[in-house]
Amino acid sequence: MKKILAAFISLLLVIPLASCTTKEAANNDGYVTDVIHINRGYNFAGMLSVIMAEKDLLTPYLPEGVSIEWSFVNPPQDIRDGLTSGNIDIAVLSSMSLITALENDFPLRIISSHITNSLRIFSKNPLVEDIDDLQNANGIYVSSLSSTTALAVMAMCKDEFNDSQLLSDKFVSQETSVSLMAYENSNDVDCLATGFPNSVKASLIEGSNLVADLTPYAREYDLGNYYVASKDFYEKNPLLIDAFRKAQQEALEFVRNNPDEAAEILAESSKTEKDVILNEMKDVTPRLEVTGYDKCASLMYEIGILDKAPKKLSEMPNYADIPKDSE
After folding, report:
1. Do 99 and 231 belong together in one domain?
2. pTM above 0.90?
3. pLDDT at residue 107 greater than cutoff 60
4. Which CATH number do you get for residue 35?
5. pLDDT digits 0-9 by tens, 180-215
6. Neighbouring C-beta atoms of residue 268, cutoff 10 Å
7. How many domains does the chain have?
8. Are 102 and 129 within one domain?
9. What 3-state DSSP class applies to 109?
10. Where are the beta strands (DSSP E) in the chain?
């Protein structure tokens, strides 16, 4: 397991740094760029950025003369290249990617949390009906051995059995795009840990039953996404960061107050049925507050993704600015 996680760490060490298109020198107005390049999402996991872009919520908060360039860059390699080159200024990183980057001294700054998707475990094995039976599973498909789904399973095992790696030897790595088909057709691997929307499809497979809802553990450990900027962009453009946060808050309120319209926008963007999104929104809503950063980092250290005890959220240089639950 640790050899596999070492490979994961090597990959994350090339996580791109958000950067910005700047003028020659900073001015006294709180920003140094005329264009903000933001990599937006398109699906449920990118909910707030979809709403912000489609409803043009950020523009009213920007100084006159500052414009937005929204991009849709999906492959991690392309996001890295975009952030490194300055074509992207603000982007989303998974909690695992962010923590690993910060622990390896990448100059990133947290803007906010974003969303934690629902995660669930399904089984076709009649002997596996609940979490107590998972040790009887022949195998559990996860998107990778160091993925959010795998970490959510470990979080559940830590909280319920006091052994984060209780089921680690059951993990079978399979890319998300093919894991559902593999689960449906496999005679050997009988369980699947997956998130929305694959979880909806998994529930419809004949003989497939819900074994465990990992969503509460994912929320507790903040196994979702964060909006981040580079240290340089964050520190030179405080006015624009503030504007971005205000637009996020407006997007959040829009989702809460107009779920039907929000679902319609997301359905169009993600090519997913509106009713399916509305149903998911009953269980999962975005938030800006960072809640389980320290628990996630501690778990990553415990299972060997991090090779040293991680810094706490309170040690972040911009800790005072990070949205978080009242202490």
Report:
1. yes
2. no
3. yes
4. 3.40.190.10
5. 999 999 989 999 999 988 999 999 999 999 999 999
6. 13
7. 2
8. no
9. strand
10. 35-39, 67-71, 90-94, 108-113, 119-123, 140-142, 171-173, 191-195, 209-213, 225-230
